[in-house]
Automatic annotation (TrEMBL):
GO biological process, one term: mitotic spindle assembly
Originating species: Zooxanthella nutricula
Keywords of the record: ATP-binding, Cytoplasm, Cytoskeleton, Motor protein, Nucleotide-binding
The protein, known as: Kinesin motor domain-containing protein
Location of region: Disordered: 1-48
Pfam families assigned to the protein according to its UniProt record, in alphabetical order: Kinesin
Lineage: Eukaryota, Sar, Alveolata, Dinophyceae, Peridiniales
């Protein structure tokens, strides 16, 4: 961890290098002599920044299916936090990924199907609770175009049940 006045940044060699700035060192030493400003909210109840990851599986689009109707890569969610990828055309072991929350919205007929209300319960409630307690929070959606980021966060505002967390 850098000491006051030092900023860590990635180096091209994979390690951390320390950059010193006279202006930053001066500001940091001033800040070190006083308590944390009352107008800056902590980032989490524990005082430690925390990043939580959520993966949501959406239904396959027609263009994602092979011409003969077979599925290509198989993706399944094993609640509460595991994503399993299997390529039926390769004799490889399934790849398993773990995150904080894994939600399956691929098929409403499945027993563990998750709609917008459950998405809100999974991520939105915690964020709103922390914000109301005065903590800084951010929700960021990341992924390729067309994968459902906007739908997950905003949903359909014409229907109260289909609204997203934002």
């Amino acid at each position: 961890t850098p000491s006051p006045g030092q900023v860590s940044s990635p180096s091209p060699h994979g390690g951390l290098r320390r950059q010193h700035s006279a202006v930053y060192r001066g500001r940091a030493s001033q800040a070190g002599n006083r308590r944390r400003s009352d107008n800056i909210a902590p980032t989490s109840p524990s005082g430690v920044e925390r990043v939580a990851t959520m993966i949501r599986l959406r239904p396959r689009l027609a263009a994602e299916r092979t011409k003969d109707g077979e599925r290509g890569l198989s993706v399944r969610i094993e609640p509460p936090s595991t994503v399993v990828l299997v390529d039926p055309h390769q004799n490889q072991q399934a790849r398993t990924f773990t995150c904080d929350v894994a939600l399956d919205s691929s098929d409403p007929a499945l027993p563990h199907y998750v709609g917008q209300q459950e998405v809100y319960r999974a991520i939105g409630e915690k964020v709103v609770d922390h914000v109301l307690q005065g903590y800084n929070c951010c929700v960021c959606a990341y992924g390729q175009t067309g994968t459902g980021k906007t739908h997950t966060l905003h949903g359909d505002w014409a229907s109260a049940e289909q609204r997203g967390p934002l």
